[in-house]
Description:
The protein has helices spanning 8-12, 124-130, 175-178, 189-197; strands at residues 34-41, 45-53, 56-62, 73-82, 91-93, 101-113, 132-139, 143-151, 158-163. The chain is mostly beta strands.
Amino acid sequence: xxxxxxxxxxxxxxxxxxxxxxxxxxxxxxxxxxxxxxxxxxxxxxxxxxxxxxxxxxxxxxxxxxxxxxxxxxxxxxxxxxxxxxxxxxxxxxxxxxxxxxxxxxxxxxxxxxxxxxxxxxxxxxxxxxxxxxxxxxxxxxxxxxxxxxxxxxxxxxxxxxxxxxxxxxxxxxxxxxxxxxxxxxxxxxxxxxxxxx
Length: 198
């Protein structure tokens, strides 16, 4: 089932004759829901946090990237739903196109909805609507519980991405600085940009 938001907003912002981004017709869901975090060097460097929900990737832009320190709250700004194929997109979006800049798959894996661990709680769609999402990430760089909490309403709504205080929390780690390579290709943003230029 595809999200009610569908991918119309995503497609309306892009010219696929110019941008190498997926159109959204490429693939279907997987047996276990995935998450992906993409580093995106656009007008400003940020990280896109994406969760597979109802046939799309629900997405938030996190300007400072995720933290492994439970005391740190990161701003997470909701963006349009992205197609599932975007989970493995890496490359350069050309100048003049929406989101122009280099995209790198910084982390990826599967996740569990902690409010529905036994299959009896609310769906992830319901927790997003409620404004309090708790998921367990099984990624290559990030593991453990993370909460997405909505603050404000309407146009003023913003979200916070917070590491939960569990065995995977580590206030000393700074993975966005110390682990810059793609989990798909081992490349850095600079290497991806250079390879696209040649």
